[in-house]
C-alpha cells in the first residue's frame, strides 16, 4: 500500500538539498514557487523563512516566521 504524502513534500526536499549545497538563491526560488502553489503550508513558510535567513534576507524571514507564530 502507498502512504499519502502532501504534494509539496518533493519541492521541500529539493529545496533542502539546494540549501545544503549552498545554492540559497535557487532554494529561495523553489520555495517561493511552492509558496504560490501551497500558500497555507506551514512547512513551506518555515523552510522559506529559514532560506531567507540563510540568504541574508532577515526582514523577509521575520515576516514569514511571525506569520507562522500567529498561525
Using brief descriptors, characterize the structure shown:
about 70 residues, mainly alpha, 4 helices
Alpha-carbon distance between the termini?
33 Å
In angstroms, what is the radius of gyration? 12 Å
Strand fraction: under 5%
| Total beta strands | 0
The succession of helices and strands, N to C, reads: HHHH
Helix content: over 70%
Walk me through this protein's architecture.
This protein has helices spanning 9-20, 24-37, 42-54, 58-70. By secondary structure, it is mainly α. Helix 1 (9-20) packs parallel to helix 3 (42-54). 24% of the residues are buried. The mean pLDDT is 90.
Summarize it.
With 71 residues, this protein is an all-alpha fold.
Layout: helices, strands, pairs:
Layout: H1 9-20, H2 24-37, H3 42-54, H4 58-70
Amino acid at each position: 500500500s502507498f502512504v499519502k504524502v502532501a504534494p509539496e513534500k518533493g519541492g521541500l526536499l529539493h529545496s533542502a538539498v539546494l540549501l545544503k549545497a549552498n545554492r540559497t538563491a535557487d532554494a529561495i526560488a523553489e520555495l517561493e514557487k511552492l509558496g504560490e502553489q501551497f500558500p497555507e503550508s506551514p512547512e513551506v513558510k518555515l523552510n522559506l523563512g529559514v532560506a531567507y535567513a540563510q540568504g541574508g534576507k532577515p526582514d523577509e524571514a521575520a515576516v514569514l516566521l511571525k506569520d507562522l507564530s500567529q498561525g
